[in-house]
């Protein structure tokens, strides 16, 4: 009986998600109406995320160390302050040879064991760098080296979105990066971070959310749906609608057959493509659906991402390709946590490190002038 009830609940949620998309689609008929609605929804997301008014952007004070040189790329360990005393920890992957300013890709991770240290995270970031892209992988709040807040705390969504906004600031401040070519991609909770960032920050020019864009499931974590970003007295939206806010910029939706994105080709993708059609840009959005695959950022998904970025960042795949045209990830070095650590015995946490949501949110409120 429990199994039957569960199936019924899932089917009802899918029907509701499809119905919600129909209702949202009825609220606009042209680009002007859509753009007016985007402005309202964007402010609703930021207000729900407790990022309205927008906080003052304080000095990042980046610390870059422990450079490693590999076959075609460089890896470094990174710490910067998204707020005074609140640290973003991650790794920067850069091309070994830079001929022209490099495009940028932000790589937030999802709720996968190992976080940014996982092999699939390292594989895609190293391959991006070998393609000529500067890639940044960084910890979710409350994961791995981000220990100033628990991941289950309510304001985790607030701080993760702010960290991503400040990560763009950090990356465009680097020498030889191209502020006109900025992508974001992540899977699962990282996919949520990807489409939220693309929706609220116009500097994102390419978005690739992986196994997360669904109209009937918003994620089961505070970092995805723990704050009222989807509905208020002034706005109503869902994750497919939020992903559509990236239009007309290039976007690749990656979905699979074994999670809540199994209906993307039939439900979410047509809705998003119709928004792109308002701009005459339906060719700018694609859906890579892998019906035999599950909830991951595996090789076939990465392969689609490499090709999409190469297409829209005008990059050659020659440096990462085998003679048969397949992508060769073999030169990538999978590093240990110890090597990748942003904080270690030599580079320890600064004395101004904040701890706990009360202290951290007080600093955020100060930055907002509240």
Please give the structural blueprint:
Elements: H1 2-25, H2 31-48, E1 63-69, E2 73-83, E3 86-95, E4 102-108, H3 119-131, E5 134-138, H4 156-172, E6 177-187, H5 189-200, E7 206-210, H6 222-225, H7 239-244, E8 251-256, H8 268-278, E9 285-290, H9 299-312, H10 337-340, H11 357-367
Parallel strand pairs: 4-5, 4-6, 6-7, 7-8, 8-9
Antiparallel strand pairs: 1-2, 2-3, 3-5
Supply the key terms.
9-stranded mixed β-sheet, 370 residues, 9 strands, Rossmann fold, 11 helices, disordered N terminus, alpha/beta, 18% strand, globular
Q: Determine the mean pLDDT.
A: 94
Quickly count the domains: 1
Just name the CATH architecture. Answer: 3-Layer(aba) Sandwich
Supply the CATH class.
Alpha Beta
Provide the structure class: alpha/beta
CA(first)-CA(last) distance: 52 Å
Record field, number of beta strands: 9
CATH topology: Rossmann fold
By DSSP (H or I, 4+ residues per run), the number of helices equals 11
The radius of gyration computed from the alpha-carbon positions, rounded to a whole number of angstroms, is 20 Å
Q: Could you spell the SSE succession in H and E letters?
A: HHEEEEHEHEHEHHEHEHHH
> How much β-strand is present in the residues?
15-25%
**What low-confidence regions span 5 or more consecutive residues with pLDDT below 50?**
1-12
Largest sheet: 9 strands, mixed
Q: Estimate the helix proportion, in percent.
A: 25-40%
